[in-house]
Amino acid sequence: MSEKKSGPKLTSMKLENADSKAKLKEKRKAEAEKQSARLGLLQRKCKEAGIPVLITFDGYDAAGKGLQINRLIQALDPRGFDVYTGDKQGEEELMHPFLWQFAIKTPANGRIVIFDTSWYRKVQLDRFDGKTSDKEAERAFYDILAFEKQLTDSGMVLIKMFLDISEKEQKKRFEKLEKSSGTSWRVSKADWKRNEHYDKYRKMNQEMIYKTNTQNAPWIIVDSTDKSAAGLAIMTAVADAMERALTLKAAGPRKEILEDAEPADRYKEGPVTRSDLTKSYDRDEYRKRLDALQKRLEYLHSQLYKLRIPVVLGFEGWDAAGKGGAIRRLTSHLDPRGYKVCPTASPNDVERVHHYMWRFWNNFPKDGHIAIFDRTWYGRVMVERLEGFCSEADWRRAYQEINDVEKHLTDSGAVVIKFWINIDKDEQERRFKDRMQNPDKQWKITDEDWRNREKWDLYEVAVNEMIEKTSTKHAPWVVVEGNSKYYARVKVLQTVVDAIEKKIAEVEKEQ
Length: 511
Prior knowledge:
The protein is of the alpha/beta class. The chain has 20 helices and ten strands.
């Protein structure tokens, strides 16, 4: 009797579930079509408003990142987005700091970039696999938070998706993938290992989410057991974030709380104004020192390549201070295959629609190479500040942003040195006149150079502040007394040689 009674009930439940599932499926389909149309419209509006959007997909293996990305982009104009994968690292990626491969691919204003696995692999996959120590993970968390804040402070929409599935569901999907010869390759031994130690891996993920769930870049946890429901949740979340960004943009520039104003004369005196410009070498002393340093640097360059040590050298200074001459003497004995000189002018149309650090990320050196910047990212707190090319909030934030980027470089093994080549106002005038009278040098002098002299005192204050706020133990500023070109060139080379020798000794000691 009990068996006969239970039969119809079970059948009835199946029919009801089937009916409910069909209705739910239709409802979700209708909602998905609605969100799809909404996404397409919001993409066009964000493009018109010049709002960049960055979407990351992280989570558990087999949670469906690829599937959900594919569903999401069906609603978008393919001319307006790019999709990149971050789960694989080739030789080029491994020879740069871990944020590099993502920083160079951040979206331009009005475009969308989607990452299938992001910078979080450093504290997720790599940490579980033992490639990232606990100490390295702590530093990586800081780097990630700083990186994300830089992006969102510049107006970028950052949407972070974490696709969640249970241990049981993951195992089931692995087994299904392995049954087919066409998909078995997608399941690796490392995937199975993470499944076998699911609780350990889950704790790492929970810590990651807890430490990096911020107001400017919150995590969106997506239960990916039901792929259809997950897809709808993702589309809705992305559309909501884009809509919020458009609302904020329409409201006008946000009023940012600036730090307490410092006294007007706080930086009238500083490293630049205290510089002793009487220092000099005669020609014979100069030639002797220069020759020895260039030969030493030639040898050290080969050691840098052997030990895979990257070097970043930044040159700033007054117009006509001698940056070009110092760089030529610095590179004269270097292997041209192992260094690059990066002249920095006003940003072009492509650079202007990216974060201000983007063009510099693209030129940071790989391990064993030297990048020499003739003018640098410090334009943000000098020319952009004084000429009104960015807001006060922008340049005030930049001190910490720059410190964070340079710390990321040095923590990744790089030598970073910044030179301010200093001359006085009279010496600059003399050099300007000399250039105007020399046909071979007239191209070096412009009306803008003369106009900039009118703001000498303002620039001096800005430079003093810049040096005091961004000269760190790991990435120091070196003020080079430049009234004597001979002295300046020798000091630059001596500083570089000393720093490289110190770094090589540290690396060899660790080996």
